[in-house]
Amino acid sequence: MISEWTTGRIGIYESETGKFIKYIENLTTPTFTYSVEHRQHVPGA
After folding, report:
1. 10, 20, 30, 35 — which has fewest CB within 10 A?
2. pTM, to two decimals
3. Which EC number(s) does UniProt give (predicted)?
4. How confident is the model over 22-42, as pLDDT tens digits?
């Protein structure tokens, strides 16, 4: 799940509830979105 990727904001969320725990904002070079469920890096990052 990618959230606000183009704005450079990484969202960390709880996969069981689907609710976001927190955001890491104002990143100029976002590298990945962390998923509790999938633990995957965004391809091409």
Report:
1. 20
2. 0.23
3. 1.7.2.1
4. 666 555 444 444 444 455 555
